[in-house]
């Protein structure tokens, strides 16, 4: 897909990953908004640096990095792992009080809809989110593992 020369947009979102697509989805609720989402494209297929430690053994393999709509979530088994309260709260010491847990948790909850259809997991997990655009559920367990 291409954009015509001189096209104008109200919002330009750089990255079509999970976060960028959620932002675009919220902005698109306004039918008059013109939104452009820019995504780099194909998987980078880069390799990470090997950790050299006696107590750490690793087989070198390519790591995936999602340059695709959906971002790395399109490659990493759709794992959803928001940061912890402790991690967010550490940002305050760097001047980011508005990025601590309490101000951010409502937005984390707003981003997801938790599914526990067969009630196999604790019912209070529904606090993860009820009306967000990202569906969250548990994967099927593999008995062989």
TrEMBL record:
Locations listed in the record: Secreted, Cell wall
InterPro entries membership: FAD/NAD-bd_sf, GMC_OxRdtase, GMC_OxRdtase_N
Gene Ontology MF terms in the entry: flavin adenine dinucleotide binding; oxidoreductase activity, acting on CH-OH group of donors
Residue stretches making up the Glucose-methanol-choline oxidoreductase N-terminal domain: 66-89
Major subcellular site: secreted
Keyword Transit peptide: no
UniProt KW Flavoprotein keyword: yes
Domain of life: Eukaryota
Listed cofactors: FAD
Protein keywords: Cell wall, FAD, Flavoprotein, Secreted
Pfam families per the UniProt record, alphabetical: GMC_oxred_N
Gene3D superfamilies: FAD/NAD(P)-binding domain, Glucose Oxidase, domain 3
Family: Belongs to the GMC oxidoreductase family.
Protein name as it appears in the record: Glucose-methanol-choline oxidoreductase C-terminal
Source organism (scientific name): Penicillium cf. viridicatum
